[in-house]
Amino acid sequence: MLELNHVSKLFNPGTPDEKIALIDIQLKLNPGDFVTVIGSNGAGKSTLMNIISGVLKPDLGDVKIGGTSISHLPEFQRSRWIGRVFQDPMAGTAPTMTIEENLAMAYRRGKPRGLSWGVSAARRKLFREQLQRLGLGLENRLKAKVGLLSGGERQALSLLMATFTKPDILLLDEHTAALDPARAELITRLTESIVREMKLTTLMVTHNMEQAIRLGNRLIMMDKGRIILDIPENRKRDLTVPQLLAEFERISGHKLADDRVVLG
Amino acid sequence: MFQSLTGAVELGLMYALLALGVYITFRILDFPDLTVDGSFATGGAIAAVMISHGYEAWIATLAAFAGGLAAGACTGLLHTKGKINGLLSGILMMIALYSINIRIMGKPNVSLINADTLFSPIDSVTWKYILVLAIVVFAIKLLLDAFLHTDKGLALRATGDNNRMIRSFGGNTDNATILGISLSNGLVAISGALIAQDSGFADVTMGVGMIVIGLASVIIGEAILGTRGVFWTTFAVVIGSIVYRIVLALAYRAEWLKLKSTDLKLITALIVIVALVIPTIRRHYKQKSNARKRTAELAVSARGKGGI
Ligand SMILES: Nc1ncnc2c1ncn2[C@@H]1O[C@H](COP(=O)(O)OP(=O)(O)OP(=O)(O)O)[C@@H](O)[C@H]1O
Ligand SMILES: [Mg+2]
Is the Cβ–Cβ distance between A229 and A221 less than 8 Å? Predict the structure, then answer.
């Protein structure tokens, strides 16, 4: 489904600030894979997501979706295949627009935007049904401005917006990190059920070790721009957090340093 | 008195399209577009030249709209594709349009005395004049509202609101920006065309300061009626334009103020400054008084507990 071949990315090449963000990344996601990604601060996790979504262009290497190279496509064209939820709850929605208008924009993901009504009666019905799945009562607030919602509500809406049109790839970059534990748990539960139900091919960065083990069918560990460990489903099932940390230390030679790390 | 008020309403309606244009760039796209000063005169120039060459007035007005669209599109291209700072893109186009407008007219001004304009058939009856203008302006307002609720319009609004978000859903923010600025200047140009036909001439300097007048209308309208949704806000902007003209008319009538017609731009700038500064001051004092109240509460409860 998703394929990265020898992808490398340098920041500020040739200057004293030169930073290797990704070096020779090889990664292949099969359809329906739900991969969790962990790693220290600055390991290159966000860079990896940005390269897949087209926010950044790799210096070397190629990104393929469904076998065709998309490396030359700008961000907005790649969203035909890719749904995203950002870490910042403010980032995924338009605050001065209503809930239904936000959903209408998400509904046209990757499709041409013409002069038909953004929120038609038929679409509104669909939006209401979809919002019910969140269980937050947002289906009764279709005309509320999204800026009035709490961080958790906005993130739940972002998640719905990114997924209800069934993207080929779903990218989640620490999308629960800015929320308090209770809300983070809510979003995690929603993520799990949506991904399972829709069989979305998903790449999820998390700083929550327990979550990284519990969710998905594969776990990737990153350090200093490399993928240092790729744990398949059968091994991941019996993994514990201490084992995972020990494994990280053994391979990378240092402790997992993450200012937001949650062990579980 | 009555006459100067109806005159103000007429002018307010004609300038309302300018205000709607400024609303699109400043408020919806969050793009401070200064092309307006040039494109307003472009609209006037195109309409005046065509009408004085015998074209139907409505064709001339449509052509003015097209000229404004083109001017705005250029600014949009400079900013999005040429990566030129937004303010500078507008200023560059404004300056370029000065020369272009003289080229269009062949001289610095064109007279429309005795020509058949849009207003010729209704000229003598004031209430008809106002009614027709009001219908036209509100029809355009409604079309704009409708557009802003289509898929394309939503993407345009999101571009100003959160362009990262709309890009992540496949919206082409560059195209949306170009479209928005273009549409804005198209409306501004129609406004210029109407003013030229109403006043009987187009002049290359007729656009000077239009950006501030448009902004004043937007701010006044929002201050009076608030900003609840697109439909309401565009209405507020139209009303703002009319109120602005009425305020000016009243100011001129107050003889003790000894205003000259050339003071117009100064007054406009003052209105905008006051409208921008008052909310800031109000917020400042509100915060201060809130802080004082809250501290007083805490101090009292601390004393109640026997102090620290
Ligand atoms: N725009 C940029 N300019 C320069 N350096 C950058 C830029 N973005 C990221 N980097 C650097 O690239 C490296 C990888 O950053 P990245 O954001 O991908 O890490 P991360 O794994 O997401 O870390 P975190 O856990 O803190 O989110 C870091 O060293 C970072 O400082
Ligand atoms: Mg990151």
Answer: yes
The rounded distance, in Å, linking the Cα atoms of A35 and A201 is 8
Where exactly are the structural domains of chain A?
2-96+149-252
E-state strands within chain A: 2-11, 19-29, 34-39, 60-65, 68-69, 82-85, 169-173, 201-205, 218-223, 226-231
Per the CB < 8 A criterion, the answer to whether A160 and A135 are in contact is: no
Candidate CATH numbers 1.10.3470, 1.25.40, 3.30.310, 2.60.120; the one for domain B2-259: 1.10.3470
Coil/strand/helix, residue A208: strand
> How many inter-chain contacts (A to B, CB under 8 Å) are there?
87
CB atoms within 10 A of CB A11: 14
| Residues in A touching B155 (Cβ below 8 Å) | 105, 108, 113
Contact (Cβ atoms closer than 8 angstroms) between residue A63 and residue A70: yes
CB B90 within 8 A of CB B97: no
Task: Give the three-state DSSP class for A220.
Answer: strand
pLDDT tens digits for range B137-170: 999 999 999 999 999 999 999 999 999 999 999 9
Backbone phi, psi, residue A13, to 5°:
-60, 140
Residues B202-257 pLDDT 10s:
999 999 999 999 999 999 999 889 888 899 999 999 999 999 999 888 888 888 87
Residue B107: strand, helix, or coil:
coil
- List beta partners, residue A28: A3
Task: Residue B131: name the closest of B290, B6, B280 by CA.
Answer: B6
Residue with tokens 């220290």: A40
ipTM for the assembly:
0.90
Residue spans of the domains in chain B: they are 2-259
How many CB atoms within 10 Å of residue A123? 17
Please tell me whether residue A242 adopts helix, strand or coil conformation. Answer: helix
Interface residue A54 vs chain B (CB under 8 A)? no
Q: Tell me how far apart the alpha carbons of residues B43 and B192 are, in angstroms, rounded to a whole number.
A: 5
Q: Which numbered ligand comes closest to the C-alpha of A223?
A: 1
Output the CA B184–ligand 2 centroid distance in Å.
39
pTM of the entire predicted model: 0.90
Structural tokens at position B35: 């092309």
Q: Is A206 in the pocket of ligand 1 (CB under 6 A)?
A: no
Q: Please answer whether residues B211 and B34 qualify as being in contact, where contact means their C-beta atoms are separated by less than 8 angstroms.
A: yes
Ligand 1, atom 18, lies closest to the CA of A44
**Extended beta strands in A103-225, E state:** 169-173, 201-205, 218-223
pLDDT (average), residues B16-27:
97
State the nearest Cα–Cα gap between B229 and chain A, in angstroms: 8
CATH numeric code, A2-96+149-252 = 3.40.50.300
Helical ranges in A54-174 per DSSP H: 75-78, 99-107, 121-132, 151-163
At B254 the three-state DSSP class reads coil
Please give the number of the atom of ligand 1 that sits closest to the Cα of A12. Answer: 4
**Residue A215 near residue A188, CB atoms below 8 Å:** yes
Burial of B307 per CB tally in 10 Å (0-12, 13-18, 19+): exposed
